[in-house]
Structure to design on (639 residues):
């Protein structure tokens, strides 16, 4: 088992390497560059800028020196935010997104699984219909609709929650409630539908019929025989969901004025801020492959049929 | 086998409501089971064998299923009117079941020990350790080598035949009065089938358990059962002692079934016999003999009315117009 974990972990390194290399060249080949939008800049200034950021060197040499830098944990200077390094920009915004995303995902998982279980056990009853209608709304209504509706009700009318902003301290918790609920909504809806569907499948399985034929109480049948298998698909969904949710959402950040990493990601791409884009890509892919790695390991503990050797 | 009747099914009707209409999966089935008896229920897929037996322990998925009528008397008490708690007392304890596919009937996420011990703890009131000892003993009886070690493994570490042995050990672990075996060997290959049947026969004989054996194989019932019920389209069309059925089958369907068994002791020329046609669709079946379109002895009356059950000497009886007095008068 531990040998498998080590081997599986080492195999992440080439994955990351390929992602970095591909992104590096793809970005460079995209039309435009970090300085192309500046107006009326004398040729000499552009030349100097290029020289300052080593962009006048051959592409492969740039790649090698960039790889050398990131091995030392240095993501380089931002091309657009002249006084900041990429490390600083991500370091300031990522923790905010991670905090918000983690709260949202915990909410989504707890509520989604609970709703999924109730809907599966009450299939085709009013509870099921109600919850699944909410889930369809959650999946289909965009965040920029849900967010403002919540703001309208809870901040503008009822005045119980702050409208927006990122505040530290006790008020900050209240300021997190609406963005977290908004962000969790589609994830909640997906988890609810996913767990309902897979629980229904298990409920109809032969081994659950065996469990009932043994005379077990319905409660024992559900807790011991149905839940484990029924919630496995949720576990595998949580890996990619977690990496997606903690790396920020520009919609949430715009609506609720949150200094998160999503906004920086989008702006860096629009600005062709090469180093910042690369920094974001590296951080996102690291989190993604790590989460998938964790899910794989957890899966092995939950499903005895998976053998590691 | 004694004369004491432990289970009496009376005019059992189980219907399923689907979009196209009402499926009368079981339509007026009656039979008796004596202590220690082995009863075979034979029929094609869809003839209502499994639904009959799931109805006995009230495991029909409802909806769409519904027990529309009849009684299931276990020691004289109707199981169809029992509370869920009362019926759970019986399930797995007094009446246990073995299912067709051993590959899917055991929970893949739980150790064999967990799955066996939970039943014994529940019904026998033993502690977990005592139950595990009992479970190991049952696995040993069921012919599982090194049961002390195997009991802590998961189902996927067992072969199909071994899993069915586990199911048998589990089914018999509370010393039930009745074991319902629903096609216990259909999913296994032929050499394993014989071993499993032998094991079931030996263990149930030793423990004095009555068996309801559901199968589509006449070969299986011939070797194991005292009595046979032949089912067609949700009803029992012929019943009798095993020797009676094989020596003098009365219903044309039974005759066809027996003729379609390949035999080693007879020189055969040409193709193996098979009953022509398909089993009927049991949705909104009219009041006729459902077998008439496939029957080579069909008469006019067969198409108009369901035949009465005609008794023969000893225990045999068949539902066919060939033997009914009314038909001769008509």
């Amino acid at each position: 088992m531990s040998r498998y974990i080590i081997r599986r972990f080492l195999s992440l390194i080439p994955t990351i390497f390929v992602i970095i290399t591909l992104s590096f060249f793809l970005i460079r080949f995209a039309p435009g560059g970090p300085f192309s939008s500046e107006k009326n800049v004398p040729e000499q200034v552009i030349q100097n800028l290029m020289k300052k950021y080593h962009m006048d060197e051959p592409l492969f040499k740039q790649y090698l020196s960039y790889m050398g830098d990131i091995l030392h944990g240095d993501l380089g200077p931002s091309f657009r935010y002249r006084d900041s390094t990429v490390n600083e920009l991500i370091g300031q915004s990522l923790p905010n997104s991670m905090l918000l995303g983690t709260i949202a995902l915990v909410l989504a998982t707890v509520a989604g699984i609970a709703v999924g279980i109730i809907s599966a056990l009450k299939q085709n009853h009013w509870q099921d219909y109600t919850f699944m209608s909410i889930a369809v709304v959650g999946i289909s209504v965009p965040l920029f609709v849900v967010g403002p509706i919540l703001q309208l009700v809870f901040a503008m009318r009822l005045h119980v929650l702050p409208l927006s902003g990122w505040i530290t301290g006790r008020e900050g918790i209240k300021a997190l409630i609406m963005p977290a609920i908004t962000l969790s909504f589609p994830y909640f809806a997906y988890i609810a539908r996913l767990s309902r569907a897979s629980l229904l499948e298990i409920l109809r399985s032969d081994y659950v019929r065996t469990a009932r034929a043994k005379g077990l109480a319905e409660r024992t049948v559900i807790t011991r025989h149905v839940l484990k298998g029924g919630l496995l698909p949720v576990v595998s969904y949580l890996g990619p969901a977690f990496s997606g949710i903690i790396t920020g959402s520009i919609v949430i950040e715009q609506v609720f004025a949150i200094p998160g990493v999503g906004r920086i990601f989008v702006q860096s791409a629009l600005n062709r801020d090469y180093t910042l884009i690369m920094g974001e890509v590296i951080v996102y892919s690291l989190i993604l492959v790590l989460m998938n790695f964790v899910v794989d390991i957890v899966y092995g503990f939950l499903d005895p049929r998976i053998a590691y050797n | 086998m004694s004369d004491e009747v432990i289970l009496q099914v009376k005019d059992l009707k189980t219907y399923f409501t689907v979009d196209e209409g009402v499926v009368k999966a079981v339509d007026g089935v009656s039979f008796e089971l004596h202590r220690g008896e082995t009863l075979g229920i034979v029929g094609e897929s869809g003839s209502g064998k499994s639904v009959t037996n799931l109805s006995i322990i009230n495991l029909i998925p409802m909806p769409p299923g519904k027990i529309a009528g009849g009684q299931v008397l276990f020691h004289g008490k109707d199981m169809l009117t029992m509370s869920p708690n009362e019926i759970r007392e019986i399930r797995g304890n007094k009446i246990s079941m073995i299912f067709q596919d051993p590959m899917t009937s055991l929970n893949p996420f739980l150790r064999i020990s967990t799955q066996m011990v939970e039943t014994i703890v529940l019904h026998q009131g033993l502690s977990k350790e005592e139950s595990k000892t009992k479970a190991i003993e049952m696995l040993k009886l069921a012919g599982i080598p090194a049961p002390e070690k195997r009991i802590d493994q998961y189902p996927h570490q067992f072969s199909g035949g071994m899993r069915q042995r586990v199911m048998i050990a589990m089914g018999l672990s509370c010393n039930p009065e009745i074991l319902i075996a629903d096609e216990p060997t259909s999913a296994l290959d032929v050499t394993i089938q014989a071993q499993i049947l032998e094991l079931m026969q030996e263990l149930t004989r030793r423990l004095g358990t009555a068996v309801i054996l559901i199968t589509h194989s006449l070969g299986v019932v011939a070797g194991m059962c005292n009595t046979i019920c032949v089912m067609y389209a949700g009803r029992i069309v012929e019943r009798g002692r095993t020797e009676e059925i094989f020596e003098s089958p009365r219903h044309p369907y039974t005759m066809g079934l027996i003729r379609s068994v390949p035999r080693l002791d007879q020189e055969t020329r040409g193709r193996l016999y098979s009953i022509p046609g398909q089993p009927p669709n049991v949705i909104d079946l009219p009041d006729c003999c459902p077998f008439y379109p496939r029957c080579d002895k069909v008469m006019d009356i067969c198409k108009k009315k369901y035949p009465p059950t005609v008794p023969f000497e000893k225990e045999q009886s068949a539902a066919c117009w060939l033997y009914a007095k009314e038909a001769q008068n008509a």
